[in-house]
Design a protein that fits this description.
The protein is mainly beta. Helix content is about 5%, strand content about 40%. A hairpin with a 2-residue loop joins strand 16 and strand 17.
Length: about 300
């Protein structure tokens, strides 16, 4: 799978309820339901376990990230009086998730987030109130899987949604994730160069680039075994896709095979004891070998 790194934000809210809502519910027969959700960058609403995969936090930098989520009155008509709603961290949801799923999450450390305002008022005649939470990626240990479920804890006696009552903030722990110091060389050629993929590289290169100039780089997890890390110095959105296939073995793919051609992985090694990745990539910088060849020889050492 080829995918670009993104920060996906999410929030959630929940409380025990036997009600299981479904899309296009006739609320005139069910009454008022209080639910929680967030909008992704495409405007799609997400919340609850059905959207769990959308709720992964993929931090692409160490800068703080503030996200919004909404508490909604789902009914035919808004209420005729103010409704005070309270949201909060609901660690019982994490425990329940761990009991039913193979991937185990630990509680998100307190220094990874700031969530201070937990009570809001949906004014009479309105449906929504907005809450904010800020995450601090600099305090994230990318090798750990953390979860921070946020649930509606009180809605003044109104029914809280059974399947849209919680959004599950979580990070994906991955032993390859984190910051790396980078060394190596980019070799530039004119046109196509023949190479048997065994070092040394062909001596006909026209220029070189010291890849240490582009250190450090951060490997962000796609899941518990795969990370993406920026490729060489060719620009944003060009990533290695590195998958841990064994204790000391990896496979390598790329996000840009629709732009470049003749991409060959000449070396892909991983040493778990030192957390060192070595990759050599030979490719042509245009489709159908219409451009010039490049060889990247890069070594990544986990900080």
């Amino acid at each position: 799978m080829k995918k670009l790194l993104a920060i996906i934000s999410i929030v959630s809210v929940s409380l025990t309820s036997c009600l299981k809502d479904t899309p296009n519910v006739d609320f005139s027969t069910l009454g008022t339901i209080i639910e929680i959700f967030y909008h992704d960058s495409g405007g799609n609403a997400h919340g609850g376990l059905d959207n769990f995969t959308h709720d992964a936090l993929l931090f692409s930098s160490t800068a703080p990230v503030t996200m919004q989520f909404l508490v909604n009155i789902a009914s035919v008509n808004p209420l005729s009086k103010d409704l005070t709603v309270t949201v909060g961290i609901d660690d019982a949801k994490r425990t329940a998730y761990n009991a039913a799923n193979p991937v185990q999450y630990t509680p998100m450390p307190a220094n990874m987030y700031s969530f201070t305002v937990k009570t809001g008022v949906i004014k009479a005649g309105n449906r929504l109130d907005t809450f904010n939470i800020t995450f601090y990626p600099a305090n994230n240990d990318p090798s750990q899987s953390y979860m921070l479920p946020i649930s509606i804890t009180d809605a003044q006696g109104q029914t809280i949604s059974g399947n849209f009552g919680t959004i599950y903030f979580h990070t994906l722990g991955n032993p390859l994730a984190g910051a790396y110091n980078v060394t190596g060389t980019r070799y530039n050629y004119t046109g196509v160069v023949s190479w048997n993929n065994v070092l040394p590289v062909p001596a006909s290169y026209t220029a070189t680039t010291n890849m240490a100039l582009y250190s450090p780089r951060t490997a962000a997890p796609d899941n518990t075994t795969t990370v993406e890390i920026p490729f060489g110095n060719v620009g944003s959105g060009y990533n290695y896709i590195i998958t841990l296939t064994g204790t000391n073995s990896i496979s390598v793919d790329y996000t840009f095979d629709a732009l470049y051609s003749n991409i060959t992985v000449s070396a892909a090694t991983y040493v778990a004891a030192t957390k060192t990745i070595h990759i050599i990539t030979h490719y042509n910088n245009a489709l159908a070998a219409a451009g010039s060849d490049r060889i990247f020889d890069e070594t990544f050492v986990h900080q």
